[in-house]
Records
---
Amino acid sequence: MKRFFPFIILLIVAVAAIFIPSQADFADASKYNPADIAWIIVASALVFLMTPGLAFFYGGMVTRKNVLSTMIKSIVAAGIVTVIWIVVGYSLCFGDSINGFIGNPSTHFFFKGVNSGAPWVFAPTIPKSLFSVFQLMFAIITPGLVVGAIAERIRFTSYVLFTVLFSLFVYAPLAHWSWHPDGFLAKMGAFDFAGGTVVHISAGCAALAGALVLKRRKSHIEGIEVPPANIPYVLIGTGLLWFGWFGFNAGSALGANALSVSAFLTTNTAAGAAGLSWMFFDVLRGKKPSVLGFCIGAVVGLVAITPGAGYVAIPQSIFIGFIAAIISNLVVQWKHKTALDDTLDVFPCHGVGGIVGMILTGIFATKTVNSAGPNGLLYGDSAFFLTQLKALCVVIPFSFIVSFAIFKLVNLIEPIRVTTEEEEMGLDASQHDERYTSQRLSTTL
C-alpha cells in the first residue's frame, strides 16, 4: 500500500487547491519598481538554473551505473519543494512569527494573501509573490545538496520522504530564524546574506547525518576507487552553478542597486580565487592540476562567500575564497583517512565552507559596503564576531540532530538503503529501470 501514498497525498492537495479563492496579483502596482522586478525575476531564474547545474555536477562525479539516479534526486526536489512551498512552506518561513521559532502555517496557507498582500518588509519595491518565488529557489536546491553525500545507496522513495521532512523541519525553521525580522537569530544580531547557514550548513550537516545513517558503500569498504563517470558533466555543472550563483547572491540584495553589483563581484572573485587555491594546493601536495580540483574549489569559494556577499568588500573576498578552499581541502584529506563515506564530500565542501564563510563574515563585514549591515572584527566590532559564533553553535547541532532523526524516522517507515544486489546493479537500473549511456561516433577509414 505504501506505493499509493505519494499519489494520494498529491491528489488531495490538487483537489483542495480547486477550492482556494483566486486573488488578483499586483493589487497596487504603483509601489513597485519595474527595474527591481525585472532583476529579481532574472535572479530567480538564475537560482533555479543551479538545480540542473547541481545535477550535472554530482552526476558527473558518481559511477556510471548511478548517474541518472543521482541527477534525478536533485531535479525532483523542484517538484516536491514547489508544492510544499505553495501549501505551507512559505508560511513556515515567512509567515507571522511564533515566538521567533517558526512562521504560522495558516498565515499564507495555500498562498493565501501572498499575491495581493503588502510587499515583504525587506523588499518593498517588488511584489511579495516575486519575493516568494525567489526564496522558493533556495528551498529547492538545499535538499538537493544533500544528495552528494548519500549517493549510490539510498532508495529513491526514501529520499523523496526525506526531502519533504527536511524542508518542513530543518530548512523552514532555519529560514525563519535567519531571514524573518522576528526570527531569533536575526534578533540576536546574526547576519547571513544569502544562505550560509540556511542553505549550506544545514545541507552539509544533513549530509553528514545521512552518511552516518546509511553507512558505507561496498566499494568504499573494499577500498575500490572508481573513476568519475563524466568529468565534462562536472565542468558543465560548475559553470551552471557559478552562473546561477550570481542570482543567488546578487539577487539577495532584493533590488537592482549598488549592493547587488557588489555582491555579484564578491561572488565571482571568491569563486575564482578558491578554484585556483584548491588546484595550486593540490600541486603543492604533488598532484597535477586537475579539472575536478578547480571545479570543486570554485564551488567551495561560492559557498564561503554566500553569507557575506553583501557585507564584505571585493578585495577581501579573494582571501575568503583562498582560505576556504584550503580548509575544505584539508578536511577532505582528513575524511579520506576515516571510515566516513560522504560520497562526494558534501560536508567538507558545503558544511565546512558555510562555517568558514560565516566566521569570515564576522571578521570582514563592513558598513562601508552595506550601511544596514554590521562591522566585523577587523573593523572593531568583536561583539558581532561572537554573535556569528553563537549562531553557528545553534545552527550546526540543530541541523545535524534533526536531520539524523529524520533519516532514522524514514528508515523506520521504509528501508532507507538499497539491498546489496541493488547497489551492485546500480541505482539507475534498480530504482528507475533506466541506464546512462553515451553515444560514441566511430569513423571507418
Note: The domain at 36-215+227-416 is CATH 1.10.3430.10 (Ammonium transporter fold).
---
Amino acid sequence: MPLTDSAIKTAKPKEKAYKLSDAHGLYLLVKPNGSKLWRLKFRVNGTEKGLAFGVYPTISLAQARQRREEAREQLANGIDPSEQKKADKLTQKVKGLTFETLAWEWYSYNSPRWAESTSYKAKLYLENDLIPSIGSRPLKAITRPELVELVRKVEARGTLNAAGKIRQWLHQIFRFGLASGVVDTNPATDLNVVAAPAKAVRHHPHVTFSELPELLGKIDSTNISTLTRCAIRLLVLTAVRPGELRAARWSEFDLNDDLWTIPAERMKARRAHLVPLPRQAVDILRQLQEITGDYPLLFPGQQNPERPMSENTINKALRLMGYKGRQTGHGFRHLLSTELNGRNYNKDWIERQLAHGDKDEIRDTYNHAIYLPQREVMMQEWADLIYALCAGANVVSIKCKA
C-alpha cells in the first residue's frame, strides 16, 4: 500500500532501522534515533543503486514522490539519476568558483613537494600578480586574451623570467582545474607563442681568479657585518648557491668529517647534495659557530633570527665594496667553474660540486655518482690555490674575523 502522511507521522523508531515502502522504489528509512530519511532504490544496467531525497518532514511525501517521478523520467531517457545528481552538484560548485580559490588549492597541493625557494616564489607571484589581476574572476569566464594581457603587464616591467614563471604556473593551475573537473578547457595553453622575445643570456658577473685577492682584501675594509664577511668567504670556498648558504642550518654540518649535507627539500633539483669542506672553510665555520652556534641557522636574520639573512645582503655588500656589475654572490660559482675547467679538472666532478644536472636527461637519470672523494681533493686544492694567491699578493685575511 502507498504511504500516507498519517502513517509517516505515527511511525516510531525501533532498535534497528526499518523501511516504510511507498511505490516504484521510494521508501522512508526510519532510524533508531527517530530521524526519517527519504530514499529511492532503482537499477541501472542490472546494478542496484540508490538516491537520497532528504529528511521528513523537511521533504514532504508529495515532494518525495515528485522527485521520484523526475528520477524515473531520467531513467526512461537513459540517464543515471545518481550520476546526474553528482554532475548537478559539481556544476553548482563550479558556478561560484573563482580563480583565487583554485589557485590556492593548487598551491596547497603542490607546495609540500617543492623546494622552499620555489614555494616562496610561487606564493609571491600569486599574491602580487595573479590574484590581484584575476583572483575574483569566475573560472569559466577567464579567457586566453585576458591571460595574455596579464602576462604582458609583467613583461612590461622588464621581468621576463617572472613572466615565464607566471605563464608556467597559469598553465599548471588550469591543468589542475581540468583534473579536478572544475573547468572544461585550459585557457593558459600556448601563452609562450606570444611571449616577449628573450633577452640575450647574461651570465652572473664575476672577477677573474687573479682579481680575487683584491676582492677578499676589501671585505675587511668595507663596513659590512661579520656574518656577511663569513658568507662571502664561504661562497668563494664552496661555490654553493647563495640561497643554499643563507638558509643553511647547523644541523646539516659535520665539522669533524669536513662535510655539509644539504637536504633535498632545499635543493633546486630536489636531491640531497654533499658539499666537501676544505679545512679553510671549516676554520671559518668554527669561528662562525662561536657567533651563531646557539641559533638553528648559520646566518639568522637581524629582525627575526628564525628567518635567514636577506637574499639581497651579499650582493649589497659586494656593491658597497665597489663590485657593482663586476661580481655577484652567484658569480662565485661561475668563477670556480671557469678556473677549474681551465685547469682541466674532471667536468663531472665540477658539475656535481655545483649540483648541476646533466644536460643529457637520460645520463642524468642514471648517473648517481657523487664523486665525493674526488671532489674533496679538488675543493681542498681550490682553497689552497686561493690562499696561495692571496699570500703572494700580501692578502692574508680570508679568515672570518669579528
Note: The chain has 16 helices and seven strands.
---
Amino acid sequence: MEFKPAWEDAELGLFRETVARFVEQEMEPGDEQARRQGHVGHALWRRAGELGLLCTDIPEEFGGAGGDFRHEAVIGEELYRRSLTGMNVAVHSIVAHYVLNHGTDEQKERWLPRMARGEIVGAIAMTEPGAGSDLQGIRMRAALDGGCYVLNGTKTFISNGFLAGLVLAVVRTDPAAGSRGISIVAVETQDLPGYRVGRVLDKIGMKAQDTSELFFDDVRVPASHLLGGEPGRGFSQLMSDLSYERLLIAVNSLAMMQGAYEATLRYVRERQAFGKPVAEFQNTRFKLAELATQIQVGRAFIDRCVQSQLDGRLDAATASMAKLWASDALGRLVDECLQLFGGYGYMSEYVIGRMYMDARIQRIYGGTNEIMKEVIARAL
C-alpha cells in the first residue's frame, strides 16, 4: 500500500530521491555513533548544505533553494520514517524563518546564506528551568548597555544546542512590560565570551539529537542583532510562526507512523510462530488493517494542511489540530507496532524500539498537546 502525499509532483519525487540517497549514504552509517555521543557533528550539516538540503524554502536571494514548504516536508518525511532524528532540520528551518519573516535586510544577508550552507546550525532558546509552554514566565534578561545587549540567564532543553552557531534567545528587555517586554536576540556563539554550552542532556529518546543547556553570563551581543531591530516584539514574532512549526511536527509524526507500519509489515511477514508467518494470524492482519487506515486518514488531513500552508491560509487552530492528532496517533500506532514485534520490539537495535522512544517528545515540544487543545478550544 502506498502512502504518497497528494502534493508530491515529479520534481518533488526527484528531490525525494536525492534526500533518500543522502539519508541512506551519509546519515544511516553513522547513526549508532551519533546516538552514543549525542550529536551528529558539524560535518554532516555542512554536507547537507553542500547538497542543497538546508533552508530549502528560503528564497535564493538569501542563499536558500527557493522551494516551498513541500521541500521541507520531504526532508522531514525521509528522516522520520527511518527514525533518523540526529539532525533537527525542522528547528534549523524554523530559525531561518524567524530571520526571514522578522529580521532586517542586514540580518537576513548576514545569517541566512550561512545557514543554508550548513556553516552555522540554528537553534531557538525559549525554554528555561522555570518556564516552558508559558512564555510569559521567561526570566532571562537582556539589558541595553551602549551599543550592546548584555544577556544573563539559563536556557534548557535546547534542540541543536550543542552544535548551534546561531541561537535566537528569547529574553526580557523590559521586565515590567509583560509580554510586551519580550524580545528575540540573535547570538553568534563562536568564541563568544560568557557563553557556555552545558551537558548534552540524557534523553529517553532522540539520542542522536543534541539537546543542551545554555548559559549566558554577561554575554555581550551587538544591539544590531535584536531580531527586527525593535525591542518588545518577541512575543508576537514567536506567535506568528508557530503554525509552521506545528505543521512540521505533524508531517514528521505522520512519516514516523508510516515508517513504523512498513517496518512492522516486513517483520511479521518474516517472523515465524507456530509454523507460519505472524502475518497470517487474523489478529495481525486486522491490526495492520487498522494501522494502515489510520495513516491514510491522517494523510488526507495533513495533506490538506500542507496545501493551506502553501496557500498562506493555515490558521493557528488547524495547525494545532494537526500537531495534536498526528502526535497522539503516532504514540498509539507505534505502541501497537511494537507489540507485533514481541520481545524484539523492546530491543533498541530494532527501529521500532527506537521509534517508540523517539515518538514520545512529539506530544511535548512545539507546545504541549494540552496547549494545542487550549488553542483549538479558543477558536470554537
Note: The first strand starts at residue 121 and ends at 125.
